[in-house]
Amino acid sequence: xxxxxxxxxxxxxxxxxxxWKEEYPMDYATPDDEPLKPQFVVEALDEATDDDAIVTTGxxxxxxxxxxxxxxxxxxxxxxxxxxxxxxxxxxxxIGARLAADSVAAERRREGDGEADDDDDQQVVCVDGxxxxxxxxxxxxxxxxxxxxxxxxxxxNEYIGMVRQWQDAFFEGRHMAAGYDWCxxxxxxxxxxxxxxxxxxxxxxxxxxxxxxxxYDGPSVIDFxxxxxxxxxxxxxxxxxxxxxxxxxxxx
Length: 252
Hints:
THDP-binding
């Protein structure tokens, strides 16, 4: 019947996607020295969190890396504005996700569900960029006031990364309003709000700091200083159809 045919087509499509992933793996170089690769940071966060961790993002390169390098296995755990392009969405979305998860856990406790205690610990991680985070950083005051257990991971490249990448690819590297050379110390800003804050520059520090931040019962911010030259692909040229995407800069 129709349902069976739809299920078969869905299975075929998933198999095709797996084939493409094997044919075009999303590899990246991981040198032993700095700067950190943002993809490495996302994979470290994924490795340290539970399968049902809720991930929110702002908009930009970090959003794409969070979609590509985080392994999602549970429904309703990816919260992003997608093509709407709403910079600053990540932190407010994380606040909403935290409140929603806590509300569900409280309801289960009232109903006598023995698994409700586990849901209290559902992790909420906001993967953000320095540009997006600065749009709504003031909402840390809400997270601190309400004592919300949220971890914000800032992939800080001191750029509006997608704008910089676009200008490099199509405007011969002429940068305009893309750089954040004056970027603040996000760990210090977090502490000024009453949250916990860390700065990470070294590969060897990533796992330990992520573990410490996730263990902290309250809002925390990790300022990861990542490679400012890292680009994200695939990329669709301006005015091009999705089928014309490029996997490398040479294909643009």
